[in-house]
Amino acid sequence: FLLPPLSASLPVVPMRVGLLSVTLFVVSLVVVASDLAGPTDIVSEADVQLYERIVQESREADGRFASLRDVFFAVSLVKALGGEIPQGDVLCKQAQSVVNEEGETADIASLHFAIGIRTSLACPEKWRSDIVVERLKEAALGSSIPDAHHAMCALDLLDRLSSFDDTELVDQLDAILKLSEDDGTFRASPDAAVGDVSTTGLAYELVAMIFEQAELEEGEALQNIVALSETAKDVLAMGEVEDEDYVEFHDAQGRHSLSTTYALFRGLSTFTKVTGLEVDVTQDFVVRVAEFFVQHKTAFTIENAYYVYQGAVLCSENPFGVPLVLRSLHSVLGADATDTIRISVTNLLGQFAVPVTVSLHRAFPVARPESPALQNVDLVPLSPGRQNIDYTFDLLATQPEPGFYTLELSAMPLDGEGTFIAVESAERPLKVTTSITLQDFSMRVGRGSPVSPTFPAAASTVLEAERTDRILFSFRVTSSATGVPVLPQQTFLRFVHSSGRDVFFVARPGADKVFQLAIDLAKTYEEEFEYLSGEYKVIVIVGDAFVQNSLTWNVGSIRITLPDAPPTEIPEHRPEAQEELVHTFAVPQIRAPTLISRVFTGLTLAPVLFLLIGLLRVGANIGNLPSGFTSLIATLGFHVCIALLLLLLATFWIRLTIVETLRYLAYLAVPTVFLGLKALRDTARKVKVEQAVLCWEGSAYDLKK
Amino acid sequence: SFIGPPMGKVVVVSLLFFSLLTAPAVLARPVEGKERTLVLLDDNGVRRSHATFFSLLEERGHTLTFKEAEDGDASLTSYGEYLFDNLVLFAPTAQDLRGMIDVHALVDFVDSGHNVLVAGASDLNDLTREFGAECGVEFDESGTFVMDHLNFDALDAEGDHTRVLIDQIATDATMIVGTEKYETPVVYRGVGMAIDDQNPLVTKIMWGSPTTYSFFEGQPIRTYPQSAGLETVLVAAMQARNNARVTFFGSLEMCSDVSFKAAAQRVSGIHIDKTANKQLCTELSKWTFHERGVLRHSNHLHHRVGESGIPHFYRVKDNLEYEVHIEQWTGEKWDPFVGQDVQVEFVRIDPYIRRTLNNDGASRFTTAFQVPDVNGVYKFRVDYWRPGLTRLFFEDKVIVRPFRHNEFERFIPTAFPYYAGAFSMMFGFFIFGWVYLYNRSD
After folding, report:
1. Lowest model confidence (mean pLDDT) among A24-38, A614-628, A691-705, B76-90
2. pLDDT at res. A568
3. How many CB atoms lie within 10 A of CB A88?
4. pLDDT by residue (tens digit) across A8-28?
5. If you write DSSP's letter for every residue of A136-190 in order, what string do you get?
6. Distance between CA B298 and CA B396 in Å, rounded?
7. CB contact under 8 A, B431 and A331
8. Quick check: A576 and B386 CB within 8 A?
9. What is the spatial distance between Cα A504 and Cα A519, in angstroms, rounded to a whole number?
10. How large is the ipTM?
11. B306 CB near a chain A CB, below 8 Å?
């Protein structure tokens, strides 16, 4: 949904005499006091600059906009702002291509945009207007309200509105009115299921345009228009009031509040201007709509900027009442300076509206509403002449205390040049500020000598404090200009340890308005100081919203000695890299050096050498080796087996596993046992024989003897 | 619960326990397609006042569903299934929450691995306050404002210095606040917060200057404020152990269109054309909704040096190599993770070895070490937990056996005398046997 700009300011049509016995809306000076305080702000020069910046930033590198729709709203907005859009030829070509190349197929909205751009920029190119005009005429008499609205606006731009005859217009009026619903809304087309507010605004404007063009006689058509004026209140009731401040409307999808609210307000405004019929738009409603636009004035799209600005323009020119905006331009007043309060009364665009009388009913501190500093004063114009918009009064003469104040003001129009909505009672904030200085600063530990540095210097002496000490501070805060004690909200003492850790304490004022602080280290060394000994820098922080020169002051240092902290718990796993862990392997036992081992090995082998040498020396021999073949074989085999067994043990040490060794041992055991039995039996037998021989030889010797 | 009640160490311990139990069940979930995001608002005005923020979310692939908190038709689940992946809780002042979203529903939502972006305000409702408490973030009392009389927006000089300019942003937490430098301050107007420094799940993202404090406007300070100075937390980020993320900021205005476009002025007179609000809000939402700082792992392998297959067991004192692939989600694709501090632990009840893995820049992280000389059942454990990144936690179990009987050292020089004694005895026995059996004495 979109709503194009008014092609021309629609004139207020004088009521046709004898139109109907309806309540007439008489445009005259009507000054009605509103319960509301009026809009709180205006669309300012800064906002206008923001809108211009939005338009500028929305352009692409080649100067074009993303869509024809954007071009249309950008051109319309810049024109409304009184500016000139650069590279108009580029935009003209962008619009021309729609008409010349897509004239037969483009939708009606695009045609309207293109014609609007052409008109605003006075494009010199040739346009194929014949086909386009025929299509627009057809759409203007068609069944779609948005298309009909686009077409009528486009034809108005082309000066072709008068080409319709009255019959066509009356038929179209009937067709439009048939789209109205019981709740006062209009459907976009016969096919649409429900009506919506945005279409309703378009319908009211269409009816106004038809009413203006057609020569309507008394009859059903006029009856319907009068009935339409009476159903507007049902649509107005659909507005959503936000925070009691403003009213807004949404389309069928619950969105586009800016365009919808603007469409409805413009439709009703145009309808009233053209027909002179009263609709149920109260001045309270206008103020709320105006507040809606200023609350949404920070726009971020071209379209929204357009609707806000045009909404502000509409609020400043509508037939229901022009809201006056009463603002406090200088809401910070230095108590010790020569500031002047400026109250301005303007329309929503910040322009002069009407000469007014501005009165101050009360000026009271926010904290003590019952004690006004000033009341019932008429404000003085800041400049002579009727076009003055700024007014002032002297609050400083009452020597107000610094702080926040509320001004209760009113603005009543002096004479009638139109319909203006007076501001009966508006509350505007005012802050009275002051500069401060710190005086009589003193700090000491226990009963020690106080140290009294002077702002902004720091004390050269470093105080010493222990766990059982009390550290005492005192100081005064006074107004620089008057010397009167001031009680700012923030009076902190910040202790900053050399490690960077800091501790805050609050100094509180006593009855004599002297700020004092006593820090009992015995009570604070655990929780606040966390056992952290060392030198602390002491910084005084004084500030408040009404203090012009909030300050921090390094007053000196205190060396605090505290007990050691008790062992802390094992820290929990933190989201950080941990120390690498290296496993410590079991350390092998200490071994003797290899040389010593070899020497001992040699010594261990020495007995074998002794054995061999001894055997040789005593004449050891194997003369008793069996001589028989089988015995010799068995004996040799037996000893070979013994040697193999010993070799097996050596091999087991060098290479074999126990399993392999046992297996080989089993193999060797059989021949060893068999051969061993044979060899040892033969040996034993031989020994017996020899013994028997010896015995026999001995017996023979004895016998011989 | 993964997040649990506030502040208490007992609670934190409980959280850790339960989180560890279920952590593997919920994995990091990067935004790859359409993310379903519920936006819970005080009223539709917030939708308009924060239109830019919401459009930025939509541009990044979020399908937004807007609900007014007081409508009563907002629900996170349907028949036990979660309808949304993320929640934008921009309803700090709604008092009558008739819907099915309460603190328990929010905690369950987070426990299920979903993310929440929470905005506060001075006039804070119980829902936001209690949810913050569940996550370890304590909002200041209702009605208080963060103030700074030396760092306020001088363009708002007529105000009460609650529109403060903040430069203190955790720029080292690049995963959360982005890598782009913050050239200008953030304009903040709202409530202050406090977090427990001992709570490892919550990170302080933005905080006040030494002169910042949080208190009621215009009232004399008789008791110590909830927070003052650098302890005044303005933005806090919580990542539960299941990688669900919750971000709190105490100022709904901070992410509004007005704040995005706002100019400001320092007390010193320096004019600021554009504040950093848009940058911060964008980065916070990206992190919160898992569009950044998401890790994934794959191919965690281990083998003996010189081999390639994963063995059934290791022997004590074996030399082994361990490797894992870790990638990071950049918002568009998975890139190699560039961290240099990923560690692996070789754990048998307690870690015996902890090594930092070498990053080859192509997402492969490796290390090598010798198996301890203590047999048992071990685990390779990677528990990578850094601020702003999703947590990686995975383990591989292996058996470590002792030496076999024939795997010990066989020839010990020190023992040679014993061996020599034995063998000399055998040799002597053999020789003596010959002599004893076959010696002939004449």
Report:
1. A24-38
2. 75
3. 18
4. 333 333 333 333 333 333 333
5. HHHHHTSS-HHHHHHHHHHHHHTT-GGGS-HHHHHHHHHHHHTTB-TTS-B-SST
6. 12
7. no
8. yes
9. 11
10. 0.81
11. no
Q: How far is A604 from chain B (nearest CA, A)?
A: 5
Return the residue matching tokens 């119980």: B126
Q: Which tokens belong to B314?
A: 């290791």
Pick from B318, B431, B331: which is nearest to B378 by CA? Answer: B318
> Cα angle at B399 between B395 and B404, to 5 degrees?
160
**Strand pairing class (B186-188; B233-239):** unpaired
pLDDT digits (tens, 9 = 90+) for A645-658: 999 999 998 888 88
Radius of gyration of chain B (CA): 31
- The answer to whether the Cα torsion of B252, B255, B261, B267 is positive or negative is positive
DSSP A221: H
Q: Do A607 and B428 touch (CB under 8 A)?
A: yes
Sign of the Cα torsion B405, B409, B414, B415 reads positive
Name the DSSP letter for residue B186: E
> Is the distance from CB of A423 to CB of A361 less than 8 angstroms?
no
Instruction: Identify whether the C-beta of residue B175 lies closer than 8 Å to the C-beta of residue A571.
Output: no
**Segment B144-201, tens digit of pLDDT:** 999 999 999 998 877 889 999 999 999 888 889 998 999 999 999 999 999 988 888 9
| Cα(B26)–Cα(B21) distance, integer angstroms | 11
CB-side neighbour CA atoms (13 Å) of A413: 24
**Amino acid, single-letter form, for residue B51:** A
Three-state DSSP class for residue B260: helix
pLDDT at A7: 38
Mean pLDDT of A25-41: 53
Element (H, E) at A253: none
Q: Is A476 helix (H, G, I), strand (E, B) or coil?
A: strand
B125 neighbors B293 (Cβ within 8 angstroms): no
pTM, to two decimals: 0.74
Q: What's the pLDDT tens digit per position in B185-217?
A: 999 999 999 998 888 899 999 999 999 999 998
Contacts of A639 in chain B (CB under 8 A): 430, 433-434
Is 80 exceeded by the pLDDT of residue A322? Answer: yes
Task: Spell out the residues 6+ positions from residue A212 whose beta carbon is closer than 8 angstroms to its own.
Answer: A10, A13, A274
Taking only residues 61 to 120 of chain B, the set having a beta carbon closer than 8 angstroms to any beta carbon of chain A reads none
CA–CA gap between residue B232 and residue B193 (Å, rounded): 6
Distance from CA of A173 to the nearest CA of B (A): 36
Measure B365 CA to nearest chain A CA, in Å: 15
CA distance A555 to A454: 8
Place of tokens 């009233």: A272
How far is residue A526's CA from residue A563's CA, in Å, rounded to a whole number? 9
Task: State whether the Cα torsion A445-A451-A457-A463 is positive or negative.
Answer: negative
What DSSP state is assigned to residue B169? Answer: B
Beta bridge pairs of residue A514: A476
Residue labelled with tokens 């055991």: A669
Q: Give the Cα separation of A414 and A354 in Å (integer).
A: 7
Quick one: which H or E segment has residue B166? strand B164-166
One-letter amino acid of A62:
D
> pLDDT above 70 covers what percent of chain A?
91
Containing A647, the helix (H) or strand (E) segment is helix A629-654
Token duo for residue A406: 């509320």
At residue A381, φ and ψ (nearest 5 deg) are -60, 140
Q: What SS3 class is residue B69? A: coil
Total number of residues shown for chain B:
442
pLDDT given for residue B239 in this prediction: 93
8 Å CB contact of A625 and B48: no
